[in-house]
């Protein structure tokens, strides 16, 4: 039985004052029926972990380096994330792939480093609008899954987020059939590669313009085990109803 997961990606948003949103989430969901993960910017990781200590809220990073330490100015290692108290890290988000040229092969190296120190890796995959229009979606997703996910992944250290690039921050959401098709395909691929039991245990999130008004419909789709939420995770008032829809 896969426990549902509501993950919030704050991206490059949030100052210390924003941490009050975590207090509100804790108040609203003292005993949630799903996992809740917040991935704030690196500057807020330490205070967020302090604030969420002994609460049901988990804290995660938004990327990491593939090396554990060394001369890489501005980067953060998986070990540093672990050391500060993060339990998970988002990897291969389409914004990282676009802004920093991250390839799927590189994402796999980051994921290996993160899994080695005990972090849960949330590996993002998704097609562009052009690729969907060219009916290449499943080929693109299949390729990203094969190349980005390390061998040895399992239901503890891997979560996959399907995030169509054209749906992120745009208000456009795929149809339930389109989401279902990709999620069923991803489940199939994971079962084929890792075996039925392991493949079945990996949580599959949908991400892209999830909000309170569409959460119920998205969470009813087969093989959707939760959501990776950007904009609507910044305010507790927007994120809390999404969590409730998942519980
Ligand atoms: C995201 O960036 O992971 C995301 C899904 O963003 P939004 O919810 O704002 O579309």
Question: What are the salient characteristics of this protein?
Answer:
TIM Barrel, 247 residues, globular, alpha/beta, binds phosphoenolpyruvate, eight-stranded parallel β-barrel
N→C terminal distance? 14 Å
Cα-atom Rg, whole angstroms? 17 Å
CATH level-two architecture: Alpha-Beta Barrel
Number of helices: 11
CATH class designation: Alpha Beta
Q: What is the beta-strand fraction?
A: 15-25%
What overall geometry do the principal axes of the alpha carbons give? globular
Low-confidence stretches: none
Query: What spatial order of strands do you see in the largest sheet?
Result: 1-2-3-4-5-6-7-8
Classified in CATH, the superfamily is Aldolase class I
Order of helices and strands: EHEHEHEHHEHHEHHEHEH
**Hetero ligands:** phosphoenolpyruvate
CATH topology, anyone?
A: TIM Barrel
Q: Taking all residues together, what is the mean pLDDT?
A: 97
Structural class, from helix and strand content? Answer: alpha/beta
Oligomer: single chain
Q: How many separate domains?
A: 1
Q: Mind describing the biggest β-sheet?
A: 8 strands, parallel, barrel
DSSP summary, beta strand count:
8
Provide a short characterization of the protein structure:
The chain has 247 residues and is α/β, with parallel strands linked by helices. Helices cover 42% and strands 16% of the residues.
């Amino acid at each position: 039985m896969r426990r549902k997961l509501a993950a919030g990606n704050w991206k490059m948003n949030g100052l210390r004052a924003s941490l009050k949103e975590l207090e509100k989430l804790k108040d609203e969901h003292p005993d949630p029926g799903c996992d809740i993960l917040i991935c704030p910017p690196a500057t807020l990781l330490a205070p967020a972990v302090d604030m969420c200590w002994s609460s049901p809220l988990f804290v995660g990073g938004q990327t990491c380096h593939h090396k554990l330490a060394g001369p890489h100015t501005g980067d953060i290692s998986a070990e540093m994330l672990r050391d500060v108290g993060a339990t998970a890290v988002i990897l291969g988000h389409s914004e990282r792939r676009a802004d920093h040229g991250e390839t799927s092969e590189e994402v796999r190296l980051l994921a290996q480093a993160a899994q080695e120190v005990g972090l849960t890796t949330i590996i993002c995959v998704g097609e562009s609008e052009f690729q969907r229009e060219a009916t290449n979606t499943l080929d693109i997703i299949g390729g990203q899954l094969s190349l980005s996910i390390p061998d040895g992944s399992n239901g503890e250290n891997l979560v996959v987020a399907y995030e169509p690039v054209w749906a992120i921050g745009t208000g456009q959401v795929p149809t339930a059939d389109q989401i279902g098709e990709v999620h069923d395909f991803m489940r199939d691929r994971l079962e084929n590669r890792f075996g039925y039991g392991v493949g079945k245990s990996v949580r599959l999130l949908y991400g892209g313009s999830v909000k309170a008004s569409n959460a119920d419909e998205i969470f009813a789709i087969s093989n959707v085990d939760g959501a990776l939420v950007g904009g609507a995770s910044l305010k507790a008032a927007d994120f809390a109803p999404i969590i409730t829809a998942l519980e």
